[in-house]
Structures are given as structure tokens and as C-alpha cells.
UniProtKB/TrEMBL annotation:
Protein name according to UniProt: Cobyrinic acid a,c-diamide synthase
InterPro entries: AAA_dom (IPR025669), DNA_Partitioning_ATPase (IPR050678), P-loop_NTPase (IPR027417)
Signal peptide per UniProt: none
One Pfam family in the UniProt entry: AAA_31
Organism: Lysinibacillus alkalisoli
Annotated AAA domain residues: 3-182
Top-rank taxon: Bacteria
Amino acid sequence: MATTIVVGNFKGGVGKTKVSVMLSWELSKYYNKKVLLVDMDPQGNASTLIARSAGVSELNTSIFDGFQKGDLKDCIVNVADNLHVIPAQVSFKNLPKFLYSKFENEIDQVSYLNQLLDPIRSDYDYIFIDVPPTISDFSDNAMMAADYVLIILQAQELSLEGAETYIKYLQFMVDNYDADIQVAGVLPVLLRPGGRVDMSTIERAKEMFGEDNVMKTVVKHLERLKAWDVTGITDNDQHDRKAHKVFTDVLDELLEKLEAFEEGGKYE
């Protein structure tokens, strides 16, 4: 049964989509895990990057098709060995209207993705959900469908506030909708490695969320990650391998945390 992880923060531009894509890519390619990436953002940036990296020229389906049909299976695109994606397109922006017209009950509205994922969870080891940085039906459905959230913290004040709001809203979902989700960790993303403001923000995050909850591994600003937006993900030279190493380090720590959660103990 898949472990389902939503990657979030209520501040845009902090690297959520890149992290969702890279963790999905590394797990499938280098850890030999069966991974499904669910794109819940109507902009479809995660879908585009995954398809470009895998040499898939066109994505002819959308998660919104699955929502309307009540079945996600026909929306799954096999983009690489062990890696599938359910892509999003701009039409998915109509999700709120669709949910309100389909369901009268608010619980049913926010739980629809969870319902649709249930028949396919056993096909995967991990499911990652990429969401827009908004308090919305997109985020609500992702939270209700996920076992864990990985919060992305770009080292700046607004991102820290966005992470704090995310955790408060997560508690709201637990209290009001009985969401069964835990914070797997807070992953720092640095704007300038070694920068004083960046380091100060991380220290404040440790005070705010608890030192054990802020991951020791950080994603540093790497030019290669921006290049991959254009070329797709590659593994051709030392710069590529350096960038991949960043995310395998993230995964090693994340998987250790998840294992501790599954064993029922607190991560130390």
C-alpha cells in the first residue's frame, strides 16, 4: 500500500513542485520504487517537467477527466520505468465548481481525491501530490488523501509564515474533517547557501516547529535545477550528479523519518 505524501506551503515560489518532481524521480530511478506523481495544480508544471524529462512529447489526459468520470485509472501516464504521473491541465481550475455541483456534503467534497486514489494505492510504493500554494479545494483534497505532508521552507520570512499557516490549517483539517495526516518534516530550501538571513530563518523555524521536525538536509540553490526546467532532468556530468545527490540525501532522511512514524515512535 502506497505511502502518500503531499508537498506543501501556502507561499508560492518556494520550490514545492521541483521537490515533488525530484523526489518522485529519484525514488523511481535510483531506489527502484514504484511511484505515482499526482499533479493537483491547474498550471501543470510538475506534469510538464516530468514529461520533458522522460521524453514524453504530449500529455493527452488530465486529472480533471478522472474526477469527472469517478475513476483515475485512465488518467495515469507511464512516463518511465516505475514512474507514473496523473497530469493536470488548465481545465482543472474548475474543480471547485465541479465538487460543489457533485456533492452537497462538505466532507464528500474535500475527500473525493482520497476516494479516487483508494483503488490504485496498492499499485505503488509512494504517491506524491503537488498542489498550488492556496487554501482551496485542491489543498483540502490533497490533505485528506495524504498520510504525510512535507513542508517546503524557503529561507525567507514570507515562506516561514506560509509554513506556519500551513501547519495551523492542517490542524484545522484534523479537527474539522478528521484528516489522518502527520508532518513528516520541514525541508529548508536556501536562497543563498551560507547567507545570514537564510541561516537565521532556519534557526527560527527550529524554534517554531521543533528542531527534530526541521530536516538536517537542505536544498541549496543550484543552477542545474533551473537548467532542468528547460532540458528536463539529466544525469550526464558531475553537476547533474551533484544535484541528484542533494535529493537522494533528502530522501534518505525523509525515509528514515517515515520509517520511525510507521513504527509508532517519535523520530529522534
